[in-house]
Specification:
Strand content: 25-35%
Number of helices: 0
Order of helices and strands: EEEEEEEEEEEEEEEEEEEEEEE
Radius of gyration: 42 Å
Number of strands: 23
Oligomer: single chain
CATH topology of the largest domain: Jelly Rolls
Largest sheet: 6 strands, mixed
Structural class: mainly beta
Distance between the termini: 112 Å
Number of domains: 3
CATH architecture of the largest domain: Sandwich
CATH class of the largest domain: Mainly Beta
Helix content: under 10%
Amino acid sequence: MASTIVVDKLQATGGVVFTLPTADGSAGHLLKTNGSAVLSFVADTDTGITDLVQDTTPQLGGDLSCNSSQIQWSKGADVASATALVLLTDGNYFDVSGTVTITSFNTTAVGTQIKLHFDAACILTHHASDLILPSGANITTAAGDEAEFIEYASGDYRCTSYTKASGKPVITDFANADINASAGIAVTKVAAMPYDIGFTAGFDGDMVKEDVAVATYGEMVMARACTITGEVAYVDTAPTGATLIMDIMKNGTTIYASTKPLIAISANTHTVGVATTTALASGDRVTFKITQIGSSEPGEGVRFTLKCKTNTNE
């Protein structure tokens, strides 16, 4: 047999006496005290965070898992180039319009990462702290260029990546260089590059050293214009009794004055000659000769390299 206990107040032993409401509340209502021990049903009006977007300072307690989803850049409104570029807070990926030189960005928050897409040519001015750019030099943008920055200190930004729309590097480390798109990555404007010319004497067909003789040991024709900057030589078995003298001839005439390169008695390395002709043109004939050998031991296994640098980029 069902029974009902009817009360209008509740009290724990020795506690406060609470007056109960006389009517039921709606679904989801909670009991609430008015501070004077009177209870009533009220709607749940919790003002806590009900959506992640309401938390403006979220913190992770562990690694963030994407759960097979993506973390995406947020596209903000376009910004006009200005001396102090005004970055908005409606995203972190912005189009930059205009051609005004940019020297700094406004502060957003330290640690903020942004990406800029340039719609026109303007100058990004390098600064040691305000705006740190690759290579420490200014960058002239072009339409389609993109750059990424991080605010590493309040109002101070470092460029962590810069990509040119043309595909060319921001800067090159070699003088007079050009990347030719039609030829792929090809250096077409490099001059003053090393162009060494090597000769040997006193070796048999298996490159086993043997006595040198007074003879011509090498001939070649120049494929490009060069400037002679020096020479180096070495002999495996040193000459004795007399010095071993070498010569370089251009189109049948020695390039040296009275002092030709030589290897002294009992020496393995050479004494530098004094060249009076240092210019070689494309088509010039270059000849290497031994003009004197040791009288007791002629010398064996001579290596001679003429040091040159190119004059043109051909």
